[in-house]
Amino acid sequence: MDTILKDIRYAARGFVKRPAFTAVALITLALGIGANSAIFSVVNSIVLRPLPYEDSSRLMVLWGNLGTSALAETELSAPEFVDVQQQVRSFESVAAYTTQGFNLSGIGEPERLRGVLVSASLFATLKVQPALGRTFLQEEDRHEHDRVVVLSHALLSVMP
What we know:
Oligomer: single chain
Radius of gyration: 27 Å
Strand content: 5-15%
Number of strands: 2
């Protein structure tokens, strides 16, 4: 314990004798700690924090693979998704989604929105319920029966 106190006193005398070195060392430490905190905050919010769904650690992403490293993670086509959904036995449920742009029109100028096309099983897979109304029915997954929409609270911010 005595040697640690001597080392601390020696370091303190060295810092007092060389104020420029002390300032550079403190600034370097401050920048390093600040950058580390910022990076950890981003990693924590994106990677470490669980998704806001029940049993989120059990969610998986299924990718297609076209046999080349450049196309190792491609989205499944609709027929591939139907095949996977019918044949898979290892998963409790399988759902699909893809992002898409939509035009919102009616009163005033049309507005371009980002939306998501989803399979009827998505809400059951994520184990979420709508605040009002209902989610999609299985028969609404078919072509020409898909004129149904679920609106989010975020849509209210773009409506007049």
